[in-house]
Amino acid sequence: MEKVNSPLCLPFSRLSVVDTLGKGTFGSVQLVKEKTKGGVAALKTIPKESISKFMIEIQKQNVENNLDDNNKTLGTQALKEITAMKRVCTGQCSGIPRYVGDREDKNNYYILMDSVRGKSLRTIVSEIGPFTDINTIRSILAQILSTISFIHSHNVLHRDLSDNNILIQPNGTVKIIDFGCATLFDPNNIPECSPYTEYPEIDPDDINKKNIIGTLDFIAPEVLVDGCYSEKSDIWSFGVLLFYMVTGHYPFSDDEIDDVYETMYNILENTVVFYETDVIYEPLCDIFYLCCNPDIYSRVTIEGKLYI
């Protein structure tokens, strides 16, 4: 692990915990303060034990289900997060919190980041309802899209672009947070995915065995079918974010049913749930369908006709 000469990182005895900001798959994030100078940062603590237990479970499932050995790499996801953050959280993009450094001791990995004030998109929508001002909507979406483009330009996939991971600051600046599901990709070696017309009947139990990571409501169909992550799976998630912003609900989940399997089927069959109260500005509706095209090979790209 890289050693970082930062007053907020070394030594840890100079840090005091102010508050708990959140918890993820592997660890928790706390707001910490440097006791002498008063600087604050966000510290993510990842217990090595949690990674070990996850690795053991993955290996067990590989044996029981004859899964490909590549699934074992999921046990190193916490380390992928650090590598991805070193690439993109450099302070060059205003849409991502800056990476400060990382360390490890006998029991834990630690990632130190700039602290970001704001509310998640989910919190804002739950408090005030869907966004209605078109200029505000365009500003937020444009910032998200620009940041996704920056992330992809550094050969990183976020893989969990959800309403919880979009932070909106009081001044309107948007941050994409939590790279806990991120991974690197080779633009010259993009995985082949099943064409939409060839999607088989999917047993939800088979989907569960693929150890898919991310937030279900934002997961693209090719991920459910093949575990096939690419830049276009992030674009699908962007489309879901757009829909959620302007309607206040997820496009492939029925609030009245609240069934995980029903959501999976709706994603695979591209069945969009609309309510009478939904009002979507037509150009935004067009963008949603471009992003959430179930056929990955026809889905729009950032470099294509995706204009906010």
Short description:
The protein is an alpha+beta fold and 308 residues long. It is built from nine helices and ten strands.
Keywords:
308 residues, alpha+beta, Phosphorylase Kinase, domain 1, 2 domains, five-stranded antiparallel sheet, three-stranded antiparallel sheet, 9 helices
Explained architecture:
- The structure is a single chain.
- The chain folds into two domains: 12-114, Phosphorylase Kinase, domain 1, CATH 3.30.200; 119-292, Orthogonal Bundle (Transferase(Phosphotransferase), domain 1).
- Helix 4 runs antiparallel to helix 7 (231-247) and helix 7 (231-247) packs antiparallel against helix 9 (282-291).
- It is 34% helix and 16% strand.
- The protein has nine helices and ten strands.
- The protein is an alpha+beta fold and 308 residues long.
- The longest helix has 20 residues, at 134-153.
- This is cAMP-dependent protein kinase.
- One of its GO terms (molecular function) is ATP binding.
* Secondary structural class: alpha+beta
Mean pLDDT: 83
The CATH topology annotation of the largest domain reads as: Transferase(Phosphotransferase), domain 1
- Give the helix proportion (percent range): 25-40%
- The total tally of domains equals 2
Major sheet: arrangement of strands? 1-2-3-5-4
- What would you say the CATH architecture of the largest domain is? Orthogonal Bundle
Low-pLDDT regions = 1-8, 58-75
Residues in β-strands, percent:
15-25%
**Main CATH class of the largest domain:** Mainly Alpha
- Biggest sheet architecture: 5 strands, antiparallel
What is the radius of gyration computed over CA atoms, rounded to a whole number of angstroms? 20 Å
Name of the CATH homologous superfamily of the largest domain: Transferase(Phosphotransferase) domain 1
> In total, how many beta strands?
10
Protein name: cAMP-dependent protein kinase
EC number: 2.7.11.11
Binding site for ATP: 44
Domain Protein kinase: 15-308
